[in-house]
Amino acid sequence: MLTTLHHVQVAVPKGVDDVSRAYYVGVLGMTELTKPPVLAARGGCWFAGGGLEIHTGVVEDFVPARKAHPGIMVTDIDELVAALTAGGHEYTWDETIPDRRRVHTFDPHGNRLEFIQQ
């Protein structure tokens, strides 16, 4: 019945679309998608890359998701780590699951993201 995950939405505060673009496009190499006008009026952005979409959604009383997170598969985690480093973003290696190289980081709004390479 289920086939695949289409997108993940992460919460962001109002007025940070340029900051989101700098991270999701500039650091992670995603492409920004055009939102339908009725949704664009709400703020936030849609990004796509590698068959995955990440949507940022504006929340008035924003609190970043420090525990809940998307787990995003990558083809080259060392390339990702290099991009995070070049962009000045901290990350933590997690070696608790055998046969998976994992990195945890936070987007510029404080939302946790996990990147995985098998």
Structure description:
By secondary structure, the protein is of the alpha/beta class. The protein is 21% helix and 33% strand. It has helices spanning 17-27, 37-40, 77-86; strands at residues 7-12, 31-33, 46-49, 52-58, 71-73, 91-94, 101-106, 112-117. The strands form two sheets. The protein has a four-stranded mixed β-sheet, with helices on one face. A hairpin with a 5-residue loop joins β7 (101-106) and β8. The model has no long low-confidence stretch (mean pLDDT 96).
Summarize the structure.
With 118 residues, the chain is an alpha/beta fold. The chain has helices at residues 17-27, 37-40, 77-86; strands spanning 7-12, 31-33, 46-49, 52-58, 71-73, 91-94, 101-106, 112-117.
